[in-house]
Amino acid sequence: MSFKTSYFYTVFWQRFRRNRFAMAGACIVIGLFLLSLLAPLITPCDPTTIDAYHVLLPPSATHWMGTDELGRDVLTRVIYGARISLKVGFVAVGIAITIGTVVGLLSGYYGGWVDAILMRVVDIMLCFPTFFLILAVIALLEPSIWYIMLIIGVTGWMGVARLVRAEVLSIKERDYITAARSIGASNSRIIFRHILPNAAAPVFVAATLGVAGAILTESALSFLGIGVQPPTPSWGNILTSGKDYLEFAWWLSLFPGVAILVTVLAYNLLGEGIRDALDPRLQR
Amino acid sequence: MLTYLIKRLLMLIPLLFGITLITFAVIHLAPGEPVDMQTAMNPKVSAEARQKMREFYGLDKPLHVQYVTWLGRMAHLDFGRSFAPDNRRVTDKIVERIPITLSLNIIALVLEFGLAIPIGILAAVRRDTLLDKGITVFVFLGFAIPTFWLALLLMYFFGVKLAWLPISGLHSLGSELLGPVAWFWDLAKHLILPVGIATFGSLAGLSRYMRSTMLEVIRQDYITTARAKGLSERVVIYRHALRNALLPVVTLLGFSLPGLIGGSVIFETIFAIPGMGQLFYTGVMSRDYPLVMGILVIGAFLTLIGNLLADICYSFADPRIRHGRA
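ok -> structure tokens follow
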């Protein structure tokens, strides 16, 4: 690592570390990662095995979060649900970021009619209420997890495209780009080697916030019955099936609800923390 | 100014075209036909009758012909008739829903701006104090909690347990017999939960934005100058800083427009509010193609017009936009 980049990360880390909210968010995000990776090692139960003799048990020493209407361990389902919900978040955001970055890079770098056409596409997409588009596509196709991730991604790239375009417009006027061009670097080399790394920071922030948004969108779709389909547990559909037992089995909806809440909160605080730590204007 | 206006109006044409194209594509992604939905459950419908129905709806023609026919009819604002049993015109169905969703969303938007702006300013002025941190957690909680869960919890608590608030619809049974004051009070009670929850959920975005623009403005030299002149902190913040911090917030108002007409599917489903969200949801679930296409196109079109008006207003305020460099 060159002196310049290592200095960048040192300063970033120093400023990020001071922000307690952001640090808490980062710890939760990492913890959730480990939890969903190690799910089978952590919990002895199976998330889909039905046990008719132990239905709707309140939280106890054997079932920390109780059992649901089919006798499944809620804790196990919440842990496995983390896998699905995070997967939805990451893949959807991955798609959105990829489309957005490519469109933003092309638009900002080439300008002219490429820019005009791509930005009009962005304008058109932004005219639709996003949730309506998602709803229409999922309901008309079928509510499979792949369609859900795909459509959340395909309807969520416009903000990233505008962000990247704005970054590129300012970066491409810098001296090091002129220098690269003067030694004969190709367009693709300039774009991917010199512009992209310098435009990456705000994209990373947008991605962090996007994961939170995608998890919420999946839970809203689940509520309407067209999210990830049971028996595969997602936080959205555990919460949705738990809502019918609100009055006499509070644990069914409380734990998945809190899981979504804490995760979305953590991703938001992390995203804000990264943004603040990257922003030179916020120096005190 | 005139050239700017003409340019913007001409720009509408490709955008409108794109809107119709995307809408058409979304609808025709789906496998199966609406005719299947209506007839599959009914064994009495013969293949012949089904074919007649397809012809009636124009579904037997190739896609591009369907698209052009649809475009042509839309040019005279004819969005066709709903596939639902009532067979009403799509435009009629939409027109009766728009005022409900629009007024609900405007109330929520006014509350959102009315609360989020002062909250954001307060957080910026008291930066890094306990108050700032409390506000941060509060607004993010509103964003992070799944709305339908919060809505159901509050509905259960205030509506069922305490029985303070009604839990569905906009009016109580027999409300038309009430006097105007009682009628209004009845409506207000129905709105508290949906509007309150919608506002709580939307505070985060705007108040965080307000906080960061305010922080940026406070660091400017002219604020230091104002303080150096010996002006009171009150005057510095509200006279000098606030005005400049508010300008970018106006742009955010423009971004709120698609949501205004769209309405929330979740709230309208939970609270049984007969708005656009609910209409769209039932339309999508029953594969009512003309209705779904009508809502998408009309919604996007109204948003386009709204954005245009916002930009024109903004260009009066900021001459840089009028003259090229957007």
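Chain A has a mean pLDDT of 87.
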